[in-house]
Amino acid sequence: MRPEDVLLPTPAGVCCQLGGFHIDPTRPVDKAVITHGHSDHARAGHGAVLATQETLDLMRLRYGEGFAGATQAAHYGETVTLGGITVTFRPAGHVLGSAQIAVEANGLRIVASGDYKNVADPTCAPFELVPCDVFITEATFGLPVFRHGDPDTEIAKLLRSIALFPERAHLVGAYSLGKAQRVIALIRKAGYDKPIYLHGAMEKITRYYESHGIDLGRIDLARGANKAELAGTITLCPPSTLKELWSRRFPDPVTCFASGWMRVRARARQHLVELPLVISDHADWDGLTTTIAATGASEIWVTHGQEDALVHWSRSSGRQARPLDIVGYGDEDEAEVTASGEAP
Amino acid sequence: MNRFAELLDRLVYEPGRNNKLRLMTEYFRVTGDPERGWALAALTGALTFQHAKPGVIRALIAERTDPVLFELSYDYVGDLSETVALMWPAPAQAPGHQRDALTLSSVIEALASLGKSQLPAQLARWLDLLDETGRWALLKLVTGGLRIGVSARLAKTAAAALGEKDPQEIELIWPGLRPPYVELFAWLDGRADKPESEDPAPFRPAMLAHALDDADLGVLDPRDFLAEWKWDGIRVQAVAGTDADGKLLARLYSRTGEDISGAFPDLIDALRLPGVIDGELLIVRDGRVQTFNVLQQRLNRKTVNAKLLAEFPAHLRAYDLLVEGNVDLRELPFAERRGRLEQFIARIDDPRIDLSPVVPFSTWEELAAARRDPDGAGADADAVEGIMLKRRDAPYLPGRPKGLWWKWKRDPLIVDAVLMYAQRGHGKRSSYYSDYTFGVWTKGEDGDMLVPVGKAYFGFTDEELLKIDRFVRRNTIERFGPVREVVHEADQGLVLEVAFEGLQRSTRHKSGLAMRFPRINRLRWDKPPGEADRLETLEHMLQKIESGRTATMPGESHNVIG
């Protein structure tokens, strides 16, 4: 059996014809298996959705009840059989509820990793390596210039800046699902115990994280605070709001942005970021290449991002590799940087 | 090196002019000599290291990384120094004290004495020692061109602020100063007298004009202004002065103060009287001003030979007189300077230098008519780019003061074209598809097809850039390295309204045409590509232009179609 007989790449996502499902389809389908709750992977309008409980909950928070005809929850390690094909969920370490999907038929195992990172994150289950024959990987940061470094160093930079400018507010642009909560958790880990403020658009998801036992300390809405109170404080907000009228309620704000893109100066400058924080929920170059090697897969499919470089690396290290050219992934990351922001 | 790297890193991210000044002034305050002087030299672009060519750095990284991965990374980052700084496989962290010992001064001193063959190994040792920011700053420094959003003028202003001096004072003595500027900082610290300028022919900061909209004219009184043609050449300052021995020294500067004398010996010879002329550099053949394309063939040449001098004779068309003999005229009203200029040019009496004529008018309507149809410029009408308006009572001030000088350009030509290829930009736009090749329709073997007619990379807003970038990414049909071909069918694609200043025949391009100064005027999301313009429209425009002038040289163009 060829890998394409198990999972067929199409422009709308990979499709398992025998099992009758798509993984992270970019168009409405009868049955979708979803890796995680980011909007480019988890779209509304499918007939049925199979995902982790957290991913289903996050989709419900974002799209409302009725985001899919039917839903089925799977927990990490659980195997579901669909038309003779088995589907197993394994943690991807990307955001709360994110999963890799291991698809098996006739002894052939393909792992669709969705988005993933193989570094510690206090807000989600750690990435679990799944040996496989074919590994489907993202390539958001698939260039050797992307080395994210230690996020604690970046948080220390933020806290130094707050000590240096006690009269100014620090606005930290961060993606609403995952990044914002991770940044808060990292700030808490560094010992900062004052209230942290939030943009209203992030409240629901952040409260959901807290309901899962993730301790984020005292969180207040920026909306309720007056300008003077916000001096010397940290506020998390969707990146798009950094440039909006909303930011004018803050005293002389220092514009910060937590993203893997901040590694490249031109990216930070494009968005007039004064304090770039290199913190990413995606694997960096070293993370991608070590993970690919560790899976033992002889064939690599690359979904989105800087696929050219990762395909080249995979081939020159003796693996078969191909880009999948799926249209529509990575828009969420783009939104993170190009500031189209969070959907309400 | 660390502190200097940190300064550069903060300047890169700081958008505000005042904050940039504060960062630099603070650096000059807390940093000693000669370190701060070398930093000022780096910031003002006064340093060049002849052996540290980008090729050396490329070779170093090539020894350490996969070439394909390097090219893809460079293409993405858009900056060689930053790409290498990020990709450099540094050994385990060097001890902090070793890194601290590596000062900017020590790097510059070492670079000055190193031979070409020793440089690569020394650079590699430094790169191993520094962190990412340090590597980036070092590479920026040695390759020249920091490009961190700080002009030489701003750096000098920051230095002036250290001693609460007027930046103009530094500007005037600057040509006589040499890095690391110990005597300058001694004066700024209040420990010594002002250094004397020894340069007999220094540059004076140029005065620039604001663009004029037709609407602005309503509030201006025509009686307050003189008008002259705006010539389509290169704005220059021609300076002649006598040194201590009474010997005359002449120089030609670009409007930013770059000494371009070496490229124009023919013009230098004509500057026989001490004085400072503000004018336009043109090529004049047989008494007629040639197009900008012709002038371009003499620009950016390191050496000039007799053939080039004969084929492209340089000419200075004078606008203004800043200094006459050794008398500074810049405080005088323009009308008075103009009178002195006319006499000065008459005294020089050289065919290579003439006066830019005043355009007579009494109402804005008359002037608008002259701008539309610059017949008054006689045989040189084609070289007119528009009209300059100058207040009669305006002194000559450095920079772009409000309300004194206006430039009123001729209306551009407009065409609706279809986006065909997009390429990622460089620098600030490195991750965006921001360079666009566009085409118009023509008859092909199998019906209508698009033929590329130009390339443009500005004219749109940041928001429009995001939208085009997204369009490109979602409508790519083929990739060629950094270039993407996007869908361009009669019913699918993006129409760009392109504005341009002129049109020429070109044998280098499939369309046979080259546009001058094309830019995106508007995005026509509403327009189906099938309704974009045809090549015949451009041919027609070109015939209209050509009917007004004699033939130009074949193959002239400076808009390369990618």
Please tell me about this protein's structure.
The complex is a heterodimer of chains A (344) and B (562). With 344 residues, chain A is of the alpha/beta class. In chain A, 24% of the residues lie in helices and 25% in strands. Chain A contains nine helices and 19 strands. Chain A has helices at residues 3-6, 53-63, 151-164, 179-189, 203-211, 265-270, 285-295, 307-316, 331-338, and strands spanning 8-10, 13-16, 21-23, 31-33, 46-51, 68-73, 79-82, 85-91, 99-105, 108-112, 134-139, 170-173, 196-198, 219-221, 234-237, 254-258, 275-277, 299-305, 320-323. In chain A, β2 (13-16) and β3 (21-23) form a beta hairpin. Mean pLDDT of chain A is 91; it is low at 332-344. Chain B is of the alpha+beta class and 562 residues long. Chain B folds into three domains: 2-143, DNA ligase, ATP-dependent, N-terminal domain (DNA ligase i, domain 1, Orthogonal Bundle); 210-409, 2-Layer Sandwich (D-amino Acid Aminotransferase, Chain A, domain 1); 413-546, Beta Barrel (OB fold (Dihydrolipoamide Acetyltransferase, E2P)). In chain B, strands 3, 4, 5, 6, 7, 8 and 9 form a seven-stranded mixed beta sheet that branches. In chain B, strands 12, 13, 14, 15, 16, 17 and 20 form a seven-stranded antiparallel beta sheet that branches. A four-stranded mixed beta sheet of chain B has the order 1-11-10-2, covered by helices on one side. Chain B is globular, with a radius of gyration of 26 Å. Chain A binds chain B through residues 143-147, 261, 263-270, 272-276, 306, 308-309, 312-313, 316, 327, 334, 338, and chain B through 12-15, 65-66, 68-69, 72-73, 76-79, 82-83, 86-87, 136, 427-432, 462, 466, 469-470, 474.
Topology:
The complex is a heterodimer of chains A (344) and B (562).
Chain A: H1 3-6, E1 8-10, E2 13-16, E3 21-23, E4 31-33, E5 46-51, H2 53-63, E6 68-73, E7 79-82, E8 85-91, E9 99-105, E10 108-112, E11 134-139, H3 151-164, E12 170-173, H4 179-189, E13 196-198, H5 203-211, E14 219-221, E15 234-237, E16 254-258, H6 265-270, E17 275-277, H7 285-295, E18 299-305, H8 307-316, E19 320-323, H9 331-338
Parallel strand pairs in A: 3-4, 4-5, 5-6, 10-11, 11-18, 12-15, 12-16, 13-14, 13-15, 16-17, 18-19
Antiparallel strand pairs in A: 1-2, 2-3, 7-8, 8-9, 9-10
Chain B: H1 2-13, H2 17-30, H3 35-43, H4 54-62, H5 67-77, H6 80-87, H7 96-101, H8 104-113, H9 119-129, H10 132-143, H11 152-162, H12 167-173, H13 182-188, E1 210-211, E2 225-231, E3 234-242, E4 248-254, H14 265-270, E5 275-285, E6 288-289, H15 292-296, H16 306-311, E7 314-324, E8 327-328, H17 334-348, E9 353-355, H18 364-372, E10 384-391, E11 405-409, E12 413-424, E13 433-444, E14 447-456, H19 462-474, E15 476-480, E16 483-486, E17 495-500, E18 502-505, E19 513-516, E20 519-524, H20 535-546
Parallel strand pairs in B: 1-11, 7-9
Antiparallel strand pairs in B: 2-10, 3-4, 3-5, 5-6, 5-7, 7-8, 10-11, 12-13, 12-16, 12-17, 13-14, 15-16, 17-20, 18-19
